[in-house]
Amino acid sequence: MERISAGHHHTAYKIGDMTVTSLRDGYVDMPTRRLRQPGNIVFGDDLPSQVALVDGALRLSVNAFAIDDGDEITLIDTGASNAWHPTMGHLPEALREAKIAVGRIRTVAFTHTHLDHIHGLILADGRDGFPQLSRLLVPRAELDMFRAEARLERFHGRARPFDPGQRLSASIDTIATPGHEVGHTCFRVMSGGETLLTWGDIVHVPSLQFDHPEITWEFDADQEQARASRLQILAMATGNGCYVAGAHLDSPGVGRVSRTETTFRFEPL
């Protein structure tokens, strides 16, 4: 992968014959008590020194990823719009900065249905974020959860389920990574002999969870399963020498995963 453009809210890369653009929706600050040690034990004041805090809080980037095959664009996640913290909702600005016309985004696919990944379907002023949308893809196991979101009611009938292992296009397929949520999914992008694993909430705190993948998150629906999925996908990333892109990795959130003697390391691209 080669970086081809960058700005405050976007970074674009060439992967084979395709372009993948990281789009910065913003960030959210979370208390350190969200982190969980095995056994659902809350961290006290014993966080490792490499974990940087902002005013005592963990700062998580919120990223979405646009995959351009030259014909149309598939958008993985949409950010939060104005549905949560005011530090998010910059996806439209990121798209403009990256010179991505929203009319070319015909497919939106969700890693899972938590609000910081799905509410960008609707702009802060109430208009549709993607007026030419023809496919809205939701993990089958979370379709009812998506349809319970009152703010997104106009999209309930348009949402279509996808299953683990399903191919979305000639270059994109899906890998089941449940745990953070029941249908949490990783999207594998392949082009020109290169591979990019695009995930949602496999890693929340990159300064900690690559080195300590056993650490989970309070909002993981099933902490044991989330831990297993994280280990599975990190091993897959190192075993194939591919690239990764994460919704909560520090913006732009793209890089490689390598093994150390005992665990993993993230190397930003």
TrEMBL record:
GO molecular function: hydrolase activity; metal ion binding
SMART domains reported in the protein's UniProt record: Lactamase_B (SM00849)
TM stretches of this protein: none
Natural source organism: Mesorhizobium helmanticense
Keywords, in A-Z order: Hydrolase, Metal-binding, Zinc
Family annotation (InterPro entries): MBL_superfamily_lactonases, Metallo-B-lactamas, RibonucZ/Hydroxyglut_hydro
Positions of the Metallo-beta-lactamase domain: 61-248
Family: Belongs to the metallo-beta-lactamase superfamily.
Pfam families: Lactamase_B (PF00753)
Record-given protein name: MBL fold metallo-hydrolase
